[in-house]
Amino acid sequence: MDQVQEIENFYGVYLLVNNNDNPKFNGRCYVGFTVNPTRRINQHNKGNKFGGAKHTTRVPGPWSMVLIVHDFPDNISALRFEWAWQEPKNSRRLKVIESIQRKKPSESWFKYHFRILTEMINLPPWNRLPLKVRWLEQDFCTDFPQSRFPNHMVICFGPIRARKKTIAAAEQSKELMDIIRKRKECHLCMNDIQNLETDRVLCVNPKCKLVAHMKCLAKTCLETNHYVPIRGECPLCEYKFLWNDIIRKKKGLSVNIADNEDEGDYDI
């Protein structure tokens, strides 16, 4: 768990565990939101004069960031997740789940917070998001109960570093981008895309020429009785994608795609 992964446009909700030798403080937990995990854990351990939270300043450290949930679409959705994880008794979605309203007598604070997290990722709206649960401390890695981890989410391991927005590494060639920029007609409905800035989306496959209205591509991915897609398949090149990656590409952020030697250029 040594390789550091860098992520653009980072929004994460983390869990801290106290490592103080005093049993009165050891094992205490804290949930927080961050756009920069490395900076945030340093702030917590330096105290509120350096930007740390009042709670982690009042309780002697050191603190360890043991896991972080990330890949939220924006800061608002991450902050709402943070608040619910901190306040299960007051959260509209969690307060009806009796089993997580209090810690069991023999249970550690970490295990209690992990139980709350397990319930959260299986409830709407969070169970519709392509979230990643990243373990940062190997000693705390815990398996989710069988069938309680949504199959479109990802469990990953190792340190993480937030980085500023850069040009995507797997972007289309200049020639292909010129073709895409000139096209104003949606491949799916065959009507003009009136507002290219807000309505146009592209396939995440860098070799695909798909241009579509966001709502047209979303319709091909939507499940019954849902309004936001989770995953889909490009109707042009048949590349399977997560909807979150379509939005990341639209914002100009990097997208990790699987290598495929059989991919070609797709015309329509």
What's a quick, concise take on this entry?
By secondary structure, this protein is of the alpha+beta class. It is 25% helix and 18% strand.
Poorly predicted parts: 259-268
Which percent range describes the beta-strand content? 15-25%
Helix/strand-derived category reads alpha+beta
Helix content: 25-40%
Polypeptide structure, described:
The protein has 268 residues and is α+β, with helices and mostly antiparallel strands. Helix content is 25%, strand content 18%. The protein has helices spanning 37-46, 54-58, 75-86, 109-120, 174-182, 196-199, 214-221, 243-250, and strands at residues 5-8, 12-18, 29-34, 63-70, 132-135, 154-157, 160-163, 200-202, 211-213, 231-233, 240-242. Strands 3-2-4-5-6 form a 5-stranded mixed β-sheet, with helices on both faces. It has a two-stranded parallel sheet with strand order 1-7. It has a two-stranded antiparallel sheet with strand order 8-9.
List keywords for this structure.
single chain; 268 residues; alpha+beta; 5-stranded mixed β-sheet; two-stranded parallel sheet; 8 helices; 11 strands; disordered C terminus
Itemize the secondary structure elements and their pairings.
Elements: E1 5-8, E2 12-18, E3 29-34, H1 37-46, H2 54-58, E4 63-70, H3 75-86, H4 109-120, E5 132-135, E6 154-157, E7 160-163, H5 174-182, H6 196-199, E8 200-202, E9 211-213, H7 214-221, E10 231-233, E11 240-242, H8 243-250
Parallel strand pairs: 1-7, 5-6
Antiparallel strand pairs: 2-3, 2-4, 4-5, 8-9, 10-11
